[in-house]
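Example 255, ligand citrulline.
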Amino acid sequence: MFTHAIVKKPCHTMIYGITTANLGQPDYDLAMKQHAAYIDALQQCGVQVTILEAEEAFPDSCFVEDTAVLTRKFALITNPGAPSRKGEIASMIPVIKQFYPENNIEYIKTPGTLEGGDVMMVGDHFYIGISARTNREGAQQFINALKKYGMSGEMVPLSTVLHLKTGLSYIENNNLLIGGEFLENPAFSHFHHIEVAAEEEYSANCIWVNGKVLVPAGFLQTQKAIESLGYEVLTVDTSEYRKIDGGLSCLSLRF
Ligand code: CIR
């Protein structure tokens, strides 16, 4: 169960966020409304949400998930692989220190890079995507930290998606939303697969929060498949974040 979430309001410069989406620039005002609805959905799941102010210097800074990995035993401060995002961690460190004692905070150090979007938690085991943002050195540093706290991790090389969780989401009870390049990957064969249709691939990024599942609005096949497993689904429109390659998980840290 999660008791907390951390989010950061989008900044006006989000319209210049890194993107491969080809969907046009986000509408900032609409993005703000969607962010408020996202916070509301998290609160409906029973978590206390810490809302950080926008940081104009970093267009992608609303995607707080990439700056830290918060486990039940320790916090990891990442080292984002995207040069324009490295500075985002400076303002996150004091926030994380409000929730974790100093000696339970670990750091990814250069030349290691890691972004939280590449980390999928399944109990005390963590899958780590090796991507354009997360390198083997960064993943190994994280695995070493996990071992220190009695947990484990494994690397999963990615070929097309931005982050591991762009194409996969673990929604507990052995259920894995899975699409595209991961479908045949033996690392995930022991999970119950909820296959995401190619035309709904964006909805492979959902989040489980205390028994409910947040699903992006407008992806009915995925929504129905999750509902048919007995989950209560809350839909949240993330159209403006999708324009800069962001999804539901990227917008919060849940712990
Ligand atoms: C980026 O390219 O870094 C942002 N525009 C999107 C980050 C999405 N984060 C995530 O999937 N965890």
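Summary: The helical segments are 28-44, 89-96, 136-148, 220-227, 239-242.
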